[in-house]
What we know:
This is Sphingomyelin phosphodiesterase. Belongs to the acid sphingomyelinase family. Zn(2+) 1 binds at residues 265, 267, 353, 547. By secondary structure, this protein is α/β, with parallel strands linked by helices. It is built from 21 helices and 13 strands. α15 packs parallel to α16 (520-533). The longest helix has 19 residues, at 365-383. The chain binds 2-acetamido-2-deoxy-beta-D-glucopyranose (9 copies).
Amino acid sequence: xxxxxxxxxxxxxxxxxxxxxxxxxxxxxxxxxxxxxxxxxxxxxxxxxxxxxxxxxxxxxxxxxxxxxxxxxxxxxxxxxxxxxxxxxxxxxxxxxxxxxxxxxxxxxxxxxxxxxxxxxxxxxxxxxxxxxxxxxxxxxxxxxxxxxxxxxxxxxxxxxxxxxxxxxxxxxxxxxxxxxxxxxxxxxxxxxxxxxxxxxxxxxxxxxxxxxxxxxxxxxxxxxxxxxxxxxxxxxxxxxxxxxxxxxxxxxxxxxxxxxxxxxxxxxxxxxxxxxxxxxxxxxxxxxxxxxxxxxxxxxxxxxxxxxxxxxxxxxxxxxxxxxxxxxxxxxxxxxxxxxxxxxxxxxxxxxxxxxxxxxxxxxxxxxxxxxxxxxxxxxxxxxxxxxxxxxxxxxxxxxxxxxxxxxxxxxxxxxxxxxxxxxxxxxxxxxxxxxxxxxxxxxxxxxxxxxxxxxxxxxxxxxxxxxxxxxxxxxxxxxxxxxxxxxxxxxxxxxxxxxxxxxxxxxxxxxxxxxxxxxxxxxxxxxxxxxxxxxxxxxxxxxxxxxxxxxxxxxxxxxxxxxxxxxxxxxxxxxxxxxxxxxxxxxxxxxxxxxxxxxxxxxxxxxxxxxxxxxxxxxxxxxxxxxxxxxxxxxxxxxxxxxxxxxxxxxxxxxxxxxxxxxxxxxxxxxxxxxxxxxxxxxxxxxxxxxxxxxxxxxxxxxxxxxxxxxxxxxxxxxxxxxxxx
Length: 728
Ligand SMILES: *[C@@H]1O[C@H](CO)[C@@H](O)[C@H](O)[C@H]1NC(C)=O
Ligand SMILES: *[C@@H]1O[C@H](CO)[C@@H](O)[C@H](O)[C@H]1NC(C)=O
Ligand SMILES: *[C@@H]1O[C@H](CO)[C@@H](O)[C@H](O)[C@H]1NC(C)=O
Ligand SMILES: *[C@@H]1O[C@H](CO)[C@@H](O)[C@H](O)[C@H]1NC(C)=O
Ligand SMILES: *[C@@H]1O[C@H](CO)[C@@H](O)[C@H](O)[C@H]1NC(C)=O
Ligand SMILES: *[C@@H]1O[C@H](CO)[C@@H](O)[C@H](O)[C@H]1NC(C)=O
Ligand SMILES: *[C@@H]1O[C@H](CO)[C@@H](O)[C@H](O)[C@H]1NC(C)=O
Ligand SMILES: *[C@@H]1O[C@H](CO)[C@@H](O)[C@H](O)[C@H]1NC(C)=O
Ligand SMILES: *[C@@H]1O[C@H](CO)[C@@H](O)[C@H](O)[C@H]1NC(C)=O
């Protein structure tokens, strides 16, 4: 039975092999629209058994359901087997090894007592009566002396200051600022950033460290991108061609739409502990050492917390405050083919973040490699024929969030090349890339430009270079493209335009919304790039990162008008696989026209975390249900149509028209006229999560529409803040 079931999983036929498939329509959709776009199954019940055949062997017994399986995984270079300590829930992982520390190169001989001098100066600075922001900029200049002369003393100094000013507990200070954790990277930023008059690096750092609410630590205005800059940027080709053929692909054999899976933010937690505290007050929840301080002293042997001291028990299938257990990842992957009507999807886009959210001291290069290897292997085996295109996410590196630019001095650009190299090797070995494409990924920080089908080009970039938490971005803050990623993207778009291709841009961190995640300068430039190449070349943009179902519009002329006829592109942020924090796990199947590469509709599926505690007493695993079709849920513009700059006959979006930027821009117009739609959107944001706040008052409604219309950070920051997320 088990063998039959796991073989069946491989062929996506679980629903035939196991008892009775659930095939019933749920959610708000009407059947008609789904039928119009081909066969689509409404629900799928995953089997309770783990598909053990996916991995050759395990460190534990994966059948038990009392603990998460711990697969034995060999690295892609076939040089080693990842040790069980990366996944064993009751043993703390060793974290990064001291050899992973990377310091800046000292700029010259060190003054003998430089550390004492710097310590004294810092003490004076911090005890002065100056404004916090001034203290911060002064301290950076002082610390730079130490970072440039004796960089290996920076981690120790950070630990000392952290303890002295009670920033964190002594143990946490030591763990966080250890050289191989954050200490040596901070030394690089302190050494390589420019803190002199006229540079904005210090202002950026202090805005993040001190915050702008309590002081004058505001960000400088985004750098102006004037005509001259933009003319140069587009290599003298600022005017797009007047004619452009968008029918560049070839119809499929049976003239069906292409089926493209969009998944994001899997965040598998290999150390997920079943039967622990899922509503914890320390570290990470659903771990063997997690506890809730209202019910427990925290004094217990890992994995031995009595049930009476647990607020919410972590379950085999997952919990709202935790990342994804292996069992849930596999159930979701098993669901894809059945939900696609029994046929494998043609292609998959995964918009990044496979690695668990964890404390910095536990995120090692080995953990990142182990996670990527085991997940890519599983995805290939479960999804079958279609290639998988991945974006690197901020959690797909060690330390998390960091990516180093090619222009860093002293050969420091290479410190994360182990990661890009490993991803390139993996994508080639899984059969998704040829060697030349893999070489590209090595060169472009895991970014690439490939053509999986005639006329379609997928350009992926490493979006850590506009992520606020990548500290390397605090170096050369006035340069909107210090990494060269946007140069690469733009040149690929220029070439695609000449070749008459359509492009999908794939990344992880979004560029806009409320502006709380990305940086101003790079996303302001990205917005101008999109304006230049959309809608003719750029057909779609795919991101993830927020864990929430969102979209962003890009309008002509930097959004000086947000009338529907000015919309040029839309980016889709796919909802996450991980239930953290307080969202239901999701997967999205898009229907794409095979000649234009435009999305005709997408179907959003999800599974309800609140049902998980009851599953062990049933004979099955999670049920994946239908949530909504974008066209069905949003395609009726009756209330706003008459006043729209892009009216549609009868107010309903024509069945043969794609869900392009105009569609989504009209939706924002309709939302102004019908605020209930914003609440509907909010329900989808968290996928029916009972924990999501409502968005019904006018302030929230207006703010959320504003986020949707803001494709860059400077635009998003102009919206009323505080309504961006449904997580808590
Ligand atoms: C630091 O920034 C200032 C002001 O922009 C500039 O004049 C100077 O050349 C920069 N220094 C370095 C080393 O780049
Ligand atoms: C400066 O920071 C300290 C510590 O965070 C805070 O207590 C104080 O209110 C701040 N002072 C000003 C003027 O913002
Ligand atoms: C800790 O447990 C208490 C009591 O069960 C609960 O009210 C609280 O929400 C829990 N804390 C967290 C952070 O989940
Ligand atoms: C569990 O709760 C009991 C009752 O409050 C308390 O005495 C005991 O110390 C707790 N045990 C742990 C391990 O927190
Ligand atoms: C009509 O549309 C314009 C912008 O497109 C908007 O400013 C105005 O409020 C709309 N009027 C109504 C009645 O919806
Ligand atoms: C979207 O599609 C509609 C219908 O085909 C078309 O009128 C509109 O110009 C398109 N919008 C964009 C931005 O391509
Ligand atoms: C795809 O789009 C083209 C151009 O709009 C259209 O002619 C064709 O019928 C569409 N294909 C399908 C399968 O709908
Ligand atoms: C669109 O909405 C209007 C107003 O709510 C309604 O009368 C009409 O039936 C809807 N059309 C479709 C095709 O759902
Ligand atoms: C676009 O608008 C934002 C917000 O007003 C502004 O900061 C930015 O400089 C503008 N970009 C360009 C290229 O004009």
